[in-house]
Amino acid sequence: MPVFYYLKEEQILQRDVPAPEANVLPNVSWGRPEVFFTPAYWMTQHWMREGNLPPRSHGLGETLEEEVVACLLGGHGIPAEVGLAAFERLRSRGLISSPCPDSDVLSKIEGLSDASPRDRTQNSLVGSSELARLQ
Fold it and tell me: Are 87 and 69 a contacting pair, CB within 8 Å?
């Protein structure tokens, strides 16, 4: 098994790593640590910085789900104020942490009954807020 060596605080550390051709996910190989954007690159960068990162950095959410929603709402072309306001509203109503209703539930909400299943799924945030209002 390959070994990754690195220097940290004047001490040489080592970690066992998968072979570069090993799949870490279907069709995603581990890769080499010196090749940008491979899983090996990101993992070894993390190891070399462990303990040196501030406890909190550049995050809006308190959970992974909240971070994903914040990223989706802050997409290209969306003013920051709009994305932040939408994120805070969803979080304050508890709609990020609750599971999204399925399309059958959304189809019963007024205004979404004529939407296709794809549209209902894409509009699940709107449907979730309407569902919460109805409950």
Answer: yes
